[in-house]
Write a structure and sequence with these properties.
Layout (H helix, E strand, L loop, with lengths): L5 E9 L5 E10 L4 E5 L6 H8 L7 E6 L2 E2 L5 H7 E4 L12 H11 L4 H14 L15 H13 L5 E5 L7 H13 L3 E5 L3 H7 L2 E6 L2 E7 H6 L1 H6 L15
Parallel strand pairs: 3-8, 3-9, 6-7, 7-8
Antiparallel strand pairs: 1-2, 1-4, 4-5, 9-10
């Protein structure tokens, strides 16, 4: 049997100041799933994400990515397999051109020449940004920069693409363009978001993280339609939005 993309068992973590952020998180995400991670501010979402590629490792419990335990022995491979796209693309783009930004990760891993060029071209094609390869990133729109940031991660051929608030600050057209890209990808997607309609549009399954534990795990439509669950965990839909009305 193929190992799941992500398996988290009994994950607990307290920061050095004593603040307990996670209290025993258990979740499994299969290969190719698109899953939204929902929850109020302070629920522990960022702490959980930082455990997925070994930025945080001192907690109790285990995290396994594609069958590999997250730990010092496999750290380089884990960080290739878990690609994180930050909320602000300017935190991710720092080279003179789009091409050089996308090439940075694979080049650091030792790829050179025609093989590197092919990886960069494929990554940019996947996000619809191949025509902008030689442009400076700061000349692009915010939505275009976010798609380039996704390409920089796709170039390393990750097992899991983790997106932090991918729809934030996007105009409606850019939001739709990014959604089209994300639907087309053949990787596992974990989307951390407060944008509940975007979660419903892109992720058939959602997890609710609240007070350091998984409070709900199920079909996104059912979770968003559960008014008592939503209120209990400080999740609110936009005014007038009815999950059941969306095809």
């Amino acid at each position: 049997m193929t190992a799941p993309s992500l398996d988290v068992s009994g994950l607990a973590y307290a920061y050095p100041d004593g603040h307990q952020a996670l209290f025993g998180v258990n979740l499994t995400i299969g290969r190719g799933e698109r899953v939204a991670l929902l929850g109020p501010n302070g629920a522990g979402k960022t702490t959980l994400v930082l455990h997925l590629n070994g930025i945080l490792t001192a907690g109790a419990g285990t995290v396994t990515v594609a069958g590999l335990p997250v730990g010092r022995q496999h750290m380089a491979e884990i960080r290739r397999k878990v690609g994180i796209v930050f909320q602000d693309p300017d935190d991710q783009l720092f080279m003179p051109t789009v091409r050089e930004d996308v090439a940075f990760g694979p080049a650091a891993a030792g790829l050179r020449g025609a093989a590197l060029d092919a990886v960069v071209e494929r990554a940019l094609d996947r996000v619809g940004m191949a025509a902008y390869a030689d442009r400076p990133p700061h000349h692009l729109s915010f939505g275009q920069r976010r798609r380039v940031a996704v390409a920089t991660v796709l170039a390393t051929e990750p097992e899991i693409l983790v997106l932090d608030e991918p729809s934030s600050n996007l105009d409606p057209a850019s939001r739709r363009e990014l959604a089209d890209v994300l639907r087309s990808l053949d990787v596992t997607v974990l989307m951390v978001t407060h944008d509940l309609p975007y979660a419903l549009e892109l992720c058939p399954r959602s997890l609710v993280l609240s007070e350091g534990v998984i409070a709900a795990d199920g079909p996104t439509r059912e979770i968003l339609a559960d008014e008592e669950l939503m209120a209990r965990h400080r999740l609110e839909l936009p005014f007038g939005f009815v999950p059941g009305s969306v095809a």
